[in-house]
Inverse folding.
């Protein structure tokens, strides 16, 4: 066991098993104490590497994350404290690994329930190698104004109230972490505060004992008196009794062993800690208190009198000139987290994103205000979901069915079109699904599948202006613009696109009005008089029919229809549909294990 001070204002730790809150509390304590460097040098998160962003005062810092204890110790050779937040299942093994690193001097084990045999091995190794184990089942320890372990002393408000941001004159050791917080407050009220406080842990076999720490305090000049809080069960307090009797401790010791109420119970009582169980008269709180009193410690008659005994002992030291109360200083203000300030109503902050189509904050996601469960219970389909997420309203069933038909008809058009070809080539290059999909989608534009919006825009503009098909086509010709939605490389007037016919048939049977579609058909009649391949293609059919859907449903205003066409909703339908086919082609090539594609020489015209 170490014989003097464990921590200082330059002590740095490695934190095992990332926990945001205790690390941030350590860093806030650092700032409160005026430390120049953060007390957490690195984080060990098995299987992860990189950085974690946290705050050091107002400054946001990046703390390195290492995947192994060995790597962390090598990267931070000055970090000599290992704070272990692993579960009881792995705490012993990871703590032993840390203790075997030459740079680690102190290991704090937070977990409760570490097997006693493992705890004994850790203690034996630490003693043999002059290292310190705090815990298991501990909240940790603190050196006021310098360094603290994890959640020791609780919130910043409690730390300030207990004056732990600057060193006092009292050394404190306890088995209980919860009672440590209570005693820090008590000691701050009646003395000049804590110099160092340690919670050794409540398990049967703690890594360091009450007497180990009291003897350390005796060797620290700044510690003028010692406060000890023990508990019934075990015989740890008797080692302190022996040290007092042998004169090894020359500073006043104020002690209390809790659990005196155990005698009121007829049967044996197990208190909160594993070690808080009396195994006989000597392990009772009364026997321990009497033994400490007989050895020279100041032991009050009850816990209620504990505070008064601490106060009297400190005042006697001051009167004797053995200590001068530490002058009070004002700690800096810890910046408040934005989320906390917003909740308390202290600040208001602008949002960075606006969303009107979905909300995932409740018990279940909602699409345009419709709960997910309602969508499933009503038996709604993909068209209905598109209706909610794209148009922010529940369209009639004939509308959502039309959307689904468009998706089905446009899902694929064979392997030779540019989008499918790109996805196939990319898949055969061994790329992942997303890369293959994107390579195909990037070909969608005015020349391939991206003419639906333009077709709708030009057909609507011409119809609304009352242009005849002749006037419309000829005006486009004068502008040097091909009529979007008209023309096909394969289909002819005598070999119409079956997809167009199916869409037109559905619309005539279900739509209340098909005025834009009929106008597109009239335009087709005129263009076929010029060339047999100038047929209404699927882009033109969908574009004109979507205009009829929007206008005929009675659910959209004219400005809303114009905005839908302008934003690109209709091309979005083709992108959504064709993604199905592009994914299919990707899977097809991977399933067939096709090799890297190379375009044949004979299919290339090499020319100067």
């Amino acid at each position: 066991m170490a014989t003097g001070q464990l921590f200082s204002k330059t002590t740095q730790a490695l934190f095992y098993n990332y926990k945001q809150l205790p690390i941030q509390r350590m860093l806030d304590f650092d700032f409160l104490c005026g430390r120049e460097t953060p007390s957490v040098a690195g984080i060990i998160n098995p299987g992860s590497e990189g950085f974690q962003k946290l705050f050091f005062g107002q400054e946001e810092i990046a703390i390195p994350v290492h995947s192994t204890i060995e790597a962390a110790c090598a990267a931070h050779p000055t970090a000599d404290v290992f704070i272990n937040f692993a579960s009881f299942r792995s705490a012993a093994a990871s703590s032993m690994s840390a203790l075997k690193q030459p740079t680690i001097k102190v290991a704090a084990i937070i977990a409760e329930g570490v097997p006693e045999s493992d705890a004994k091995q850790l203690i034996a190794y630490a003693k043999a190698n002059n290292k310190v184990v705090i815990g298991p089942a501990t909240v940790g320890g603190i050196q006021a104004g310098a360094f603290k372990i994890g959640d020791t002393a609780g919130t910043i408000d409690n730390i300030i109230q207990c004056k732990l941001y600057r060193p006092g004159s009292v050394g404190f050791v306890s088995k209980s972490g919860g009672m440590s917080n209570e005693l820090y407050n008590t000691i701050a009220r009646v003395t000049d505060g804590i110099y160092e406080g340690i919670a050794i842990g409540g398990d049967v076999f703690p890594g360091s004992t009450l007497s180990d720490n009291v003897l350390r305090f005796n060797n620290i000049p700044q510690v003028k008196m010692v406060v000890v809080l023990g508990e019934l069960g075990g015989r740890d307090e008797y080692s302190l009794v022996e040290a007092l009797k042998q004169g090894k401790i020359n500073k006043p010791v104020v002690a209390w062993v809790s659990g005196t109420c155990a005698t009121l119970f007829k049967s044996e009582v197990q208190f909160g800690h594993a070690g808080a169980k009396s195994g006989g008269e000597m392990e009772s709180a009364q026997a321990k208190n009497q033994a400490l009193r007989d050895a020279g410690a100041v032991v009050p008659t009850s816990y209620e009198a504990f505070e008064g005994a601490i106060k009297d002992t400190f005042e006697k030291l001051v009167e004797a000139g053995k200590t001068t109360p530490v002058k009070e200083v004002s700690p800096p203000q810890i910046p408040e987290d934005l989320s906390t300030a917003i909740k308390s109503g202290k600040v208001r902050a602008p949002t960075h994103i606006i969303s009107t189509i979905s909300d995932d904050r409740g018990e279940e996601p909602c699409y345009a205000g419709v709960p997910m469960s309602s969508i499933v219970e009503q038996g709604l389909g993909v068209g209905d979901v598109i209706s909610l997420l794209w148009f922010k309203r529940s369209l009639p069933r004939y509308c959502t069915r039309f959307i689904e038909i468009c998706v089905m008809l446009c899902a694929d058009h064979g392997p030779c079109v540019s989008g499918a070809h790109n996805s196939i080539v990319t898949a055969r290059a061994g790329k992942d699904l997303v890369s293959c999909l994107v390579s195909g989608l990037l070909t969608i534009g005015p020349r391939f599948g991206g003419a639906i919006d333009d077709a709708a825009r030009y057909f609507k503009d011409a119809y609304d202006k009352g242009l005849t098909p002749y006037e419309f086509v000829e005006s486009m010709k004068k502008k040097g613009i091909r009529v979007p939605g008209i023309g096909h490389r394969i289909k002819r007037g005598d070999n119409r696109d079956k997809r167009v016919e199916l869409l037109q048939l559905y619309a005539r049977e279900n739509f209340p009005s098909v005025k834009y579609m009929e106008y597109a058909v009239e335009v087709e009649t005129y263009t076929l008089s010029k060339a047999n391949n100038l047929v209404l293609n699927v882009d033109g059919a969908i574009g004109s029919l979507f205009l009829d859907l929007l206008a005929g449903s009675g659910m959209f205003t004219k400005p809303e229809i114009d905005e839908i066409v302008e934003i690109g909703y209709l091309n979005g339908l083709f992108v959504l549909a064709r993604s199905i086919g592009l994914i299919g082609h990707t899977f097809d090539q991977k399933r067939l294990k096709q090799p890297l594609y190379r375009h044949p020489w004979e299919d290339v015209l090499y020319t100067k």
